[in-house]
Structure formats: C-alpha cells, structure tokens
Amino acid sequence: MEFPFKSHQSLKMKIKIFTIYMIIFSCSLSARAQNLSTENLFNNLHPFWEFLEEVKTEVNDEKGTAYHSVLRQSHNFIFLELEDEKRVLMLRIELQIEHPGKLVKNQVYCRHDDLTKKISQKADKLEGEFEWKTDSSNTFKLTQTQINYLKIADRIAAKGNDIHAQPTDFSEVILTEYWIKLEQINRLNSRSLSHRDSYYLRDLKIAIPLFPKEEKHNTEIGIYKIGRMLINFFDGSAKDYKATGDQIRTQIEKEKEAYGQELDHQK
Fold first, then answer.
1. C-alpha span between 39 and 57 (Å, rounded)
2. Would you say residue 205 lies in a domain?
3. Alpha-carbon dihedral sign for residues 247, 249, 252, 256
C-alpha cells in the first residue's frame, strides 16, 4: 500500500501553476459563493468514478492486468487515472471545466497505444454541460464514520483557505480504492527572493482510509490522528504570515478533543 500523501510531481507542477492563477483571479472578486462540502464534492464526482471503474475493468480484462483507479480533482481540473501496483501511470484522462459550465476533454494519455483511441472515444461522453451542484443526486457510497471524518476535515480546512480554493476548501482532492486524500497547500512567494519576509510555506494533508480496519496496509502515521483519519500539518511560513497556520493547528486540536469526548460519551 502506498504512502497516503505521495503524488506525481508533473501533475503537482500543473496544479501549482493553476493554483497561483486562481489565487490572483479569486482575490480580484469582492465575494465568492459558498464552497461545497467534500461529501457533496464526492457526490458530484460519483459519475466520473463509475466511468473510471468501468474503464479499469475493461482494460484489466483485455490485458490481464490489475490496474488501480485514481481520481484527482483540483480547481477546474478532473483527472481520471489508472496505475499499476508500483504506481506507474498507465492512463490519464484530463478533463477541464470551462466557463460557463462546460466540461471538455483536454487530453488522453495511455501506455497501451492500441487502447488510446478506444478510451478517448469512450471519454467523449463525459463532455458537455457541467456545474458543481450543492445538492447532487449522485450519492457516493461512504459510511457514516467516513462522512463524519469529511466534516471534520472541512472544518479544519475552512480555517486555512486563504488560497481561495474551489469548489471545496482543498487545493486537491484525491480518491483511490483505499484512501480519500485531501490537500490544502499554500506556497505563495515561497521561492521569491524579494519576499524573504512575506511568504507562505504551509501544507495541510489529510488521509481518510476506505479499507476495513482489520485489513493491514502500510501507512505513515500523521502528526495528528483523529480516529482512523491521519493529518499531516506543516507551517514554515514567514514569521508574520503564520496566523492562518495557527488557526488550522488550533482547529485540529479542538477536533481531536471533541472526538475524544464523543468516544467517552459512547462508552
């Protein structure tokens, strides 16, 4: 089982560039609509996950392989991917939400040349009108415990969304067969020599397991643990830019305490 917070560097670079653009764009708005909860986001993403699972089954049957599904969402991008056991990328379908409310297929990469055209044509049906719905009719199957973890994660992330992430308070949401991974990254001006005293260097990474507790998977224990949810948080921002990070850390501690009290009441 992979380390729950590991990700592809090339994809990270694309998302990072787009994140900077979104910060600049969002800051020009006087107000923004209420963000979706992550539970609601997964309801919106449910049809894409079903599509990816269908493609995975077809490819595995045809090639005799055992690829795994990975869905990534960041700002206006949705990536549908298949990886092998070593996390080597086999397939990536890149989708983008263009304004106003249109979903387009940007590109398709497939390691099997003989499947590229077939999968690309199949992905054509994903294109068309699209908007994030606050009350999606597609219900993604999660346990109540997992939904509660998402609500805790939302409350923590809400304290740190100075990056103006949309449609949730996370800059990237990743769904695999084993994990939900939520990331809120702010690196604004962190590499600028002219901003040595005015930069952000903050990472919030949350992993929620989807596998049964009795199953054994190799994981790296987070700095914080709330139930089975792992939280890694780091803030190396400039001295005068740590206020948001302090709010995140305080909220994490509050959620830990509240979770412990709830367990005590159930005893």
1. 26
2. yes
3. negative
Counted domains in the chain: 2
Residue in the block written with tokens 């994809």: 11
The terminus-to-terminus CA distance of the chain in angstroms comes to 33
Q: State how far the Cα of 110 lies from the Cα of 28, in Å rounded to an integer.
A: 38
CA distance 162 to 185: 10
Whole domain around residue 116: which residue ranges?
A: 9-129
Domain boundary among 129, 155, 178: 129
DSSP state of 26: H
Cα torsion at 48, 52, 58, 59 (round to 10°)?
150
Measured distance CA(16)–CA(21) in Å, rounded: 9
Is 1 among the domain residues?
no
Pair 198, 117 in one domain: no
Instruction: Please state, in angstroms and as integers, the Cα–Cα distance from residue 262 to each residue in 145, 257, 266, following that order.
Output: 13, 9, 6
Read off the amino acid at residue 8: H
Model confidence pTM above 0.85: no
Same domain as 73, residue 24: yes
Q: What 3 state SS string does 108-150 have? A: EEECCHHHHHHHHHHHHHHCEECCCCCCCCCCCCCCHHHHHHH
Per-residue pLDDT of 137-195, as tens digits, reads 778 889 999 999 999 999 999 999 888 889 999 999 999 999 999 999 998 776 676 67
CA separation for the pair 72, 254 (Å, rounded): 29
For residues 236 and 221, what is the distance between their CA atoms, to the nearest angstrom? Answer: 20
Residue 3 falls inside a structural domain:
no
